[in-house]
């Protein structure tokens, strides 16, 4: 098959190459998928820069839509040719013409769901559901602050918070141009990163932060007693911030890390359940996913670089051409 692979740790611009690769076969409990579309996420940039341990060459891609190609031993409930979405996070591979995923992490596509849209669902929408419901235990009426609110994950965090009954949802961005986009996503308010310094303390129950850096420390000050900060990433690649556990104790607040890859390894069935729920919610219109660009797989490097720069909103989806 053909695949877009990481061949060196020189970053997206020069470290990715579209080339021949071995076609993966499903093992016991796995499903092979003929990939039509793959979502682009920030983690692909981390892989391309060597910030996540991988062996080269490596086929990135954590989320796809396509059709069932083959079923591994012991898999039932699916048929060859069936339209599906899959979370390929346990081994990557989404940027190949064929990808393999555990059957638990595959979701049938409801009739009428655009497969391009479906490819943008598995990582971010599933993360938002698990992080807010299972990890932060968001309760009805609570207030939520979301960093990078216009991005792929941020666009889902605000909507899921509202779906779960949050009373106030505020989005944060570093760009004045993205303010209106945040409001269009259903956020009650759109703040610039600089607004955090002047914000009244102790006004949020949950802060969702995929950015890290100094803003993470300031976000702790914005939590009221019983508040939870979700550490969801390190997009800023800034120096790690030290947090006093004594301060957490005295104020009665907490910091909780959530990594979808690690969580999936430990809880595949639970993640799979939320994946299928995410697909159904998008298909029904209860949640919306905004695909801002659809590009051929050969332009994966440009797509990954754009996401890495923080200039994008919503999701970019790559289309895989079958030879």
From TrEMBL:
Keyword Oxidoreductase carried by entry: yes
Lineage top rank: taxon: Bacteria
MF GO annotations: mycocerosate synthase activity; NADPH binding; oxidoreductase activity, acting on NAD(P)H; zinc ion binding
Keyword annotations from UniProtKB, A to Z: Acyltransferase, NADP, Oxidoreductase, Transferase
EC number: 2.3.1.111
Keyword Chaperone among UniProt keywords: no
Name under which the protein is recorded: Mycocerosic acid synthase
UniProt xrefs under InterPro entries: ADH-like_N (IPR013154), ER (IPR020843), GroES-like_sf (IPR011032), NAD(P)-bd_dom_sf (IPR036291), Quin_OxRdtase/zeta-crystal_CS (IPR002364)
Lineage: Bacteria, Bacillati, Actinomycetota, Actinomycetes, Actinomycetales
